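Lecture notes, unit on binding sites. The following record was shown on slide 14. It pairs a sequence with zinc ion.
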Amino acid sequence: MVGRQECERVRELFTAEIDREASEIEEAAIRRHLRSCAECAEAYDAHRAVARGLAQHPLVRPRAHPLPPLVRFRSQAFALVALAAAAVGVVVVLLAR
Ligand SMILES: [Zn+2]
């Protein structure tokens, strides 16, 4: 039986561990806990998947953006136009009431 307090403590260390900022002692504690606690092991996997997704996100790592600068500019401009159009649409709907 694993204590709930230990689960909370280990989960607080997930981010540091994934960012490789945890100490060796903390890492060992996390690994030991994950072996004995399926719930935390699952939470850890989910946490790591999110962290990896974020690391590959263009806003987090602009230099790793797969699109050339011109295309990127166009897609940003398009997003801005789409946002403006949506805002206008909301105003029109509100005024029509
Ligand atoms: Zn746990």
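Take-home: The radius of gyration is 22 Å.
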